[in-house]
Amino acid sequence: MTAAVVTETRAGVRPGDPRRAMVALAKAEAVRLLRHPVTIAGILLFVGTQLYGWLSAGSDHYPVLQYEDWSKQFTALLTLGGAALVAVNLAALRAHRHGTTAVFDTLVLPAPWRAGAFLLSVLPYSAVVAVLTGGRIGLLAAVPGAAGRPNPFELALYPAAVLLLGAVGVLLARWLRAAIVAPLLLMGLTAVTFAGALPSTPGATWLRWLLPVALEEPPMPLPVDLMARPAGRHLVYVLGLVALVAVAVLAVTGARGRRLTAAGAAGLSVAVLAGSAQFLPMSDAVRAARSTAAERPAEVQTCRRIDQVTYCAFDGFSSWIGGWDGVVRGVLRGAPDDRARQPLVVRQRMSTVDLYADGESSRSAEQAAAAAAAWRRVDARAGTPDAVTVGTRWGDGRSAITFAGLVAYQVVVGRGGPDGSQLCGARGVLVAWLAGQATPTAAAGLHEADATSWGALPFGDPQFPIGLSVPDREAAVALALLNRPAADVAQVVRRSWAELAAAKTSAERAGELFGVPVAPLPPEEERTVCGA
Amino acid sequence: MTVVSASGLSMRYGRTLALADVAFTLADGVTGLLGPNGAGKTTLLRIVATALVPDRGELTVLGVDPRSESGRLAVRRRLGYLPQDPGFHPGFTAFEFVDYVAILKEQTDRRARHEEVRRVLAAVGLANQRGQKIRALSGGMRQRVALAAALVGDPDLLILDEPTVGLDPEQRLRFREVVAELGEGRSVLLSTHQTEEAMALCQRVIVLDRGTVRFEGAPADLAALARGRVWTTESRVVGALASWRDGTGRYRHVGAPPPGAELLEPTVEDGYLLLVDATAHQGVLA
User: Do A16 and B180 make contact, defined as CB atoms within 8 angstroms?
Assistant: First the structure.
């Protein structure tokens, strides 16, 4: 060891200005943040959940982009934002945790500039988050079954929320010198976000939009023009909070001055104004458009005919027609040729009324019947009576079996729009089998419905008044038939179609025709009313 | 050239008076700050290093009054400080840690800064360990990393607070070699418990005891304070300020010698012992 080098190069390096030093420190901290195990874990968790959704062959193959753009904001808040909060907090506490403050307190760069560097260090990570989340939407948009278009404000909220949590991480480190505080805050934020999502929470609407991301689950995805999330205002609100927290960090570390005061006032004004503006009522135009789309969808839909089947979809959803047609062809494949050649209309429907959010678990039978009758009248006026309903979710087993069941009902019974009643007897067996054998996804959906229902298999979106259910007794026969070669069953179906499709044919008779034992009827008091 | 000038410095922690009317000057070269535990050495060093502001007194460091914000920054730009317990970020490599300190010293040009970091790591003999995580380095190496961090920017004033505590003799000697080189052409203020270190390294020493300066001058002058007050005998005697058996098997005594005693040439340690209150530091002398 020699000290010769010390005296050789006494020229040294002259100090620069604090602004440049802050940027240099921010770069160093940004690299450390990106390499931090917590950050990497957060990114892997977020990417992992997306990959799982993709690989599990669910609705990710038919994404609604104006739904997908915000639906993962909470996941991103927990994983990517949580990582920013914890990792930046740990970085800002590093000198305290490792006892280097004795040295660092005597170094040149003043504390506010150091705090500024920690704030800036979140920017590259936010850019990574923007690339990750934007890339995710880009990939989803490239899927052939993608519907709609994303909202750039919703996409921008991902990096903005990460910025906010990162800034809060710095602020916490200045206020409370304990590494446990940031994870506790993240847990608290998660709990409050969930509470905001619960309709039963007092002031839930207000609460959820005052949080970094609003966990709001609409009854179903809506067409782009009907979206009423205050995405732009919420983004500005969050950016206002970012400015406010950044100013607080600088002030806590000793920064003073008019510009800081002005920045704080601006951040506060933006946060208050944009935060308040989030609660402005929906515009009349959107309200009217929603009403039209929900009540008279034919007025705003585009229809496309494939052979004898007409598909009417909302703007942006026509890419799903191929998927719908696959299910329709699958159902018709099991029906006799004369039935399969009958014209059929499929109409997409949507609902903006969340029955669960309104505190009701379901409509009453009378309400459902009245609403279904109204839908039928509207369809008749539009020149498409007995149209089969399909919703704005597609790609998973549930949506496939729901649609397949309604198509099968139309083919078997000869009319559309069942009002939620139970379809008993041979018709029930036939509808359940036709629906289940339509596509592998529909079969999976049928088994899923069987596993999660009690008493009867539901075919319908609970948010719609249209739907039907098949009692377990009849469904059991259909499920048994699905284990047999479809061609063999189809042969029996075609041969005995008239009898099987007749309203009075019993489940026992269907069992006889197919050679499948049928469970005895339950006691009188446990039987449900059949009526579909 | 006077690098540090202090007069009337006082500092109090609650009821404890850490420094009382301290006055001294510091010039180029290595100055040792000697004193027992609790003498106020670290407080004084932290005041000179601008980490603390004294309650009272005048202080000029490198020609600047560090009490103002601008003065403090001006001092810090020309200062290197190695505290008693510097602390490390164990997940950093030696290079990363020193580079981090260099950034906090406002060295913004990346290439020049990295060159500087390599230079100071080489200066403390860690050129080959710069890529190692600090958690993997020995105590002596860590201390050298801290010294390298203090050397960034080629400071005009280097403050080292007990830098060799916890080091083995070899590491201590290596460290001493580096500090000796550093003292050429700059001012080094070195706090230590070890009088032999002060003797080996320092052109001047300041003895601080109970918050007051008891001595300021050359090490030889400190030793000279004990001239005629160090003697040797075959057996232990009662009444000496301090007595111990040395390597020859004879007893060495410091204090008032009896008539006809066999006097010895005093050392810095002897002078130091005479200065500070021996009864308060019997543990050290035992």
Answer: no
Give the dihedral of Cα atoms A414, A416, A421, A425; nearest 10 deg.
Answer: 20
CB B129 within 8 A of CB A46: no
Interface check for B133 against chain A (CB to CB < 8 A): the answer is no
**CB neighbour burial string for B85-97, b if at least 16 within 10 angstroms, e if fewer:** ebbbbebbbbbbb
Complex ipTM? 0.87
Q: What angle in degrees, to the nearest 10, is found between the helix axes of B139-151 and B94-104?
A: 30
Distance CA B65, CA B88 (A): 30
In this structure, what token pair is assigned to residue B273? Answer: 């012992």
What is the C-alpha to C-alpha distance for residues A412 and A390, in angstroms, rounded to an integer?
18
Beta bridge partners of A304: A311
CB contact under 8 A, A12 and B90: no
Query: Considering only residues 83 to 142 of chain A, which have any Cβ-Cβ distance to chain B shorter than 8 Å?
Result: 94-95, 98-110, 114
User: In sequence order, what are the residues at sequence separation of 6 or more whose Cβ sits closer than 8 angstroms to the Cβ of residue B229?
Assistant: B254, B255, B256, B257, B266, B270, B274
SS3 category, A331: helix
Cβ-contact A88, A110 below 8 angstroms: no
Task: Please count the other Cβ atoms lying within 10 Å of the Cβ belonging to residue A122.
Answer: 30
In the sheet that B230-233 helps form, which strands lie side by side, from edge to edge?
B242-245, B251-254, B230-233, B262-263
Separation CA A60–CA A54 (nearest Å):
6
All residues of chain A having their beta carbon less than 8 Å from the beta carbon of residue B146 are: 103
Stretch (H or E) spanning B48? helix B41-48
Q: In what order do the strands lie in the sheet with B56-61?
A: B16-27, B2-13, B56-61
Q: Is A37 on the interface with B (CB under 8 A)?
A: no
Record the tokens describing residue A432, joined without a space. 């359940």
Residue A313, phi then psi, degrees to nearest 5 = -130, 155
Contact B181 A24 (CB under 8 A): no
**Is the Cβ pair A106, B124 closer than 8 Å?**
no
* Nearest alpha-carbon partner for B192 in B182, B181, B206: B206
Distances in Å between the Cα of A230 and the Cα atoms of A157, A199, A280, A386, B64 are 12, 18, 9, 37, 57
Q: By CB neighbour count within 10 A (0-12 exposed, 13-18 middle, 19+ buried), where does B8 fall?
A: middle
Cβ of residue B58 closer than 8 Å to a chain A Cβ? no
Ranges of H-type helices in A278-415: 284-295, 321-333, 337-340, 365-381, 397-413
Question: Over its length of 532 residues, how does chain A's per-residue pLDDT go in tens digits?
Answer: 333 333 333 444 444 689 999 999 999 999 999 999 999 999 999 999 988 877 875 656 789 999 999 999 999 999 999 999 999 999 999 999 999 988 898 999 999 999 999 999 999 999 999 999 999 999 999 988 999 999 999 999 999 999 999 999 999 999 999 999 999 999 999 999 988 888 788 888 888 899 999 887 777 889 999 998 999 999 999 999 999 999 999 999 999 999 999 999 999 999 999 999 999 999 999 999 999 999 899 999 999 999 999 999 999 999 999 999 999 999 999 999 999 999 999 999 998 776 555 555 556 777 778 888 888 888 889 888 889 999 999 988 999 999 999 999 999 998 877 877 889 999 999 999 999 999 999 999 999 999 988 888 999 887 888 888 999 999 999 999 999 999 999 999 999 999 999 989 999 999 999 999 988 887 777 777 776 5
Tokens 């069953």 appear where? A489
Name residue B253's beta-bridge partners: B231, B243
| Degrees to nearest 5, angle at CA A365 with A363 and A371 | 70
Q: What contacts A352, CB < 8 A, 6 or more positions away?
A: A218, A219, A222, A226, A290, A294
For the entire predicted model, the pTM comes to: 0.87
Q: Is A206 in contact with A217 (CB distance < 8 Å)?
A: no
Pick the residue from chain A with its C-alpha nearest to B51: A106
